[in-house]
Amino acid sequence: MLYKIFALGLPSLCLLLTYALAGELRYTSALSIHSGQLHGISFFSNAFSPWSADPITSLVFSGSYPASEVMLGKEKYLSSFFFLVAALGLGARAALERQSPILFGLVGGLLLSALQIYLGIDVVTIGALCWIPWVLFAVSLREERIGLTLSCLFIYLSIASSGTAILPLMPALFLATSKIVRPSVSVLALATVLSLAVALPFVPDWTVPNYPGDGHVVSDDGVPGIVRPLTSEASPVPIINRTSERSTLFFPTFLLAIALVLTIPIGKGEDRPLILAIGTLTLITFFDLTLSEDLALINPLQTYRRVIPEAFAPSISTIMSCGILLLIAGLRNSSTSLPIAAVILLGSIFHGFQSNYLSLGSFTDKHSDKLASDAFKASSNIQRIIFSPSFSVIRQYQLSFEDLTNIPKQETKTQTLSGKDFHIVASEGSTVKKRKLLDDNRQTRMRVGPGGQRGGEFFCVELNESLRAVEIRLSTGVYFSDFPRALRVTEGDNCESIRSAKNAVHTFKPWEGSLLFTTDGFPYFGRQAVVQLRPRNPTRAVLFEQLGKSPYDWSIAEMQITATENTATNFLPSFLEDSGIDSSSSEAPQQLSSTPYPAPH
Amino acid sequence: MNFHFLNRNGDLARRVVVASSGALIGLLLLLLLGGELSFWNFTNALQLASRSTIIILLLFTSGVTLFFTRPTSKELPELLAATLLLLFFSGWLTRPFGLLQGPSIRGEILLFALLATLTWKWQRWLLPTALFICHGLLFLWFFQSADGRMLFSDDNPTFFYRLLLLKEHFPNIPFYNPLWNGGIDARDFFATGVLNTFLLFSPLIYTFEVHSIYNLLVALLLFGVVPLSTFAASRIFGLSSRGGLLASILATSSSLLWYRWALQFGTMGFVTSTALLPLTLALGYRYFEHERISALQALATITVVSLYLLWSPAGIACIPLIFLGVIFIRKLLRQRWWIPSVLLLICIHLPWISLFWSVSTVGNFLVSEEERSSYVAAYSEETRPEVEEKEVELQKPKAYKHKKEEISLKNALKHLQEALHSAQPLVWVFAISGILLLSGMARLILASTLIWLLAVGSFGPMIKPQLEFDRFLVMALLVGSIPAGKALSLLFNTEHPRLLASLAIGFLFAGVWSVGGLLKNRSVVPIHYQPEEVQEVVQLTKEHAKGGRVLFSGFVLHDFGGGHIAPLPVLSQQPIIASNPVHKLWRYQQVFPKEFMQKGDSGIDEYLDLMNVSLVFAHERKWREYFRKREDLFTEIGRAGKFVAFERKYFPHSYFFKGSGEIINQSTNEVKFQLSSPSAVLRFQYFPFLEVDGCETIRPVPISASITFTAVSSCKADEPLSLHSVSPYKRWKLAYISKGGS
Question: What is the least distance, in Å, from the CA of A230 to any CA of chain B?
Fold first, then answer.
């Protein structure tokens, strides 16, 4: 009876904890420096905390724990260290068992892993996996007390480095179903729980940034309304980039499916339930990734995430899948699970191609010095901002490290323009009526173009000689659907020559909304119906070109231009000269109400 | 023709035909109750033929299949369960304002159905355990969502205020409340039904602070009284424990409208009565049984029925029961305690009903639908600025949520459809089969009550819009949970999992989770909890009232933290003036009376002086700008949310219009004062039922069309005097014997 309870209860518990704790995906993102450029890597756009190495690694490399920021620049050494740890663990495990199928699988995996290391394995993946072979080693020791102690230690290290609280529970699961019960299930389960209890206080708190209700950080998924969990904590706005999620997970899931198909014919009778279980999981994940969103929404996987508290943010992880199958390989001595494990291990390594990279601009020695200084305590919020639901926004707008740390320091006297201060040039067929743009009536509009959006419609605003625009705001008023589907914005001196001259050009394809910031400095998209842009330098003319297609008109119901006298002012001072960071304060930069769009690349 | 293949011996062909007839009936129900057939999304309407043609075809084909298969009543649940499958794939679940809000809720339905299938062999103990846990979860989610803040939507603060007043003054109600609008007749305890809530929870109310337990009272009502009442009623009606549990969870998750009335509107009187309705019906049913009723049971019946009837329209729901009582009078007369019960009920209720009839204008209210115009959303300027633009102070606010319409089947069906769209589908799908599974008087009582409630709920809003009979549809869904529970219990009574039974479990738990989502404020029913703004207003009022009254300009409806402003005098210990403390107005009404508004600034100042106003709050842009412009007379001293406070630089500093004296204290039911002259005119509204201890004469002094002050004379000088209402008994006498009532 006890066996049955564990056999049934533990899988359920494991699955529940997978989603409930969700610590894993908070540790699958990191900053790194390559060739003088700062990069961010995130496996999913909902990886919300920067990765942190386990205590042993942290102590080795920095002398303190946790120590995520100081790992910057040491990625190569970290990867090698983790590889060494993993290789030793696998070797120790193999040595204990002395069984050729395991050795074959491990050696094969190691060889290919070694190749991938030199091609550039990411530190997060290997860091999350490296202690797991040691867990396998510990649970297989004949001496129970030593095995138990070491199990606790390695389980804890595994949790601490990956945040993957679920993985250490897998040994308990499979021990319950395997022929060899060593150590006893209950003891190992206890060890796991204790390790969890030790590790959990180190899991940092994470709360959804205070995005306003009308903001968004991911593209519309096409499903009407906002789908949230019914009863657990939910973000006020959708935060999971499903497109990114699908692209990241599709390849490993595909590999898993292939592996299953290949191993089914060779599976023995005792492997059937296992193959069935993994097959079902694969199928569910596959449907989650391939079906349209309104069908994926009712898939058990997404529903499970909605129903389980705190599980809405993460999705299933290849690290978890990989870890599960690695453990299966180690414990089950199964000829079918080994190839599956090897394939998935490869998939998790190769899936670095699907990870989300973020280029955050140059990062020189000066920046390093800055990071090492006390002022960085304030900018350590930058990691929190980057690895947040705003990740997609930062990537789309190609914001740099400097963009995220700067605030406009210089205030200039501005004025809101009236109709006599500017003139408009628009594409043929437009209903140009300045009065309608300035009458403070959201129901009167100007249509740009002959009707609908076919691409090529344009609208140019040219100010009088003495004026320079510092902010332009276009609103569709009550015509909510009449926003431009894609925009190219060009700054220049006049509308006639604005295209031909080498002027600053910024493209937003698709147009997701204006770039705005919360009071804590988290970027988000404003409503698509409002195009609010602020040039890097005050400019006399701004050309808006619509590049997308839609049956809806491009309407402008209200326009507001804020201008200054003809002066040249840089509103975005450099990071070093005027960092905008108060070293006495640990607060993040204050709210930016403006919309700095990225410098041309 | 030999139809032996359609016999009742479980032949496969027969089962197929039975299933088909179930599908046909399901389609028919969807078409009738949904208005149209749609696939997956309600915007994908399937228009194969005209609606009436399809209905006729479906009626014919389902009739034929039923005729030949002749399913037993025990087969009916499974037959009707096919409707669930159609519901799943139709656009029903994607309609707005549904309890089960698609498209994502299909995922929850599927997941719970899958779990049910996997765990089917343990469902005998697993299902009841899960249902128990669900009740607990609902408690938990409610308190999680509240997070220590008091429920403050719409009428919730008003009911909270009424409970406070009852705690202080019961049974001396009605009474004169000088803290509101210069004095009002606090008599709405009867009409609103708050007495039932008060009496039911009186031990808690008298032991603890009402503010600290208000949420608990609401939670106990919704997640304690409702399931217990339904469970007990189910057991009395002959359901098994499992059937009773199913009925109780269905009742708790019967519809979105139920929680709209309970949490968003906060009509606790109605909620309490409705929660007790199943038990009332069940206890009434006991009298028809052969088994003798004991004295204790009779006492319990009287208690429950009395609490139930304290919400004035509640009796209408029991008309079928009364009617059956008349028909089966012989059965009732066999019960020894029947006549004493009836007599005791009359003795308990006649006094308060007669008092209620005399003190209120209920007679006029009942026929007021003729004068009423159509419904106009009455919001303050902050939510509907265009309403304020069109404000016409000269019009009397005579509008209700519904308007009187021509009685038609089409409109009645529309009301019914709206209610069912918001309901847990399991209730209306299985209620019919459940009733057929019951027998004898149980079937008769439940069937007749359900039909009556549906009829009143569908037609009533057209006839008497002011009585809001659409609530009876909510009551019907609650009562319908009992037979639905019976049918579901039978459906789940199988050894092996079946698709439709699993799907029903999916719907059941999806309904619970949907209620959870509602409690967590993730539905179209907005629930407000007391915001900080309320405490800020209270603080400003306390600090700056300076002995005068506090006035809220414009029209205050739900602007006070999402609810009514009723409890402010008690929270701030200051007298308040506003358009109306409770929800009696359905159209914008300015707080300044018409006759003063017409005079412009001088009229407004005159009114403020007459009412001894020292502090003004403005939450509408126009009034804020108005007071800001008049900075010679008003000083802006602070802001609490949308309310900006202005102190009056000059105000009378006196509650005496004529004469002189001192106000010792103003409480919720009296004004204590002392005169330095033998007579005076107090700046308090006059009512005929007022008296003054220590004065010989009290009379009205009309000041304007809407202000009548109170004059007292021949008073004892330099002694504390008290202005208050006569006792309830005296008031009753005034109404019926002296004919000088309200």
Answer: 4
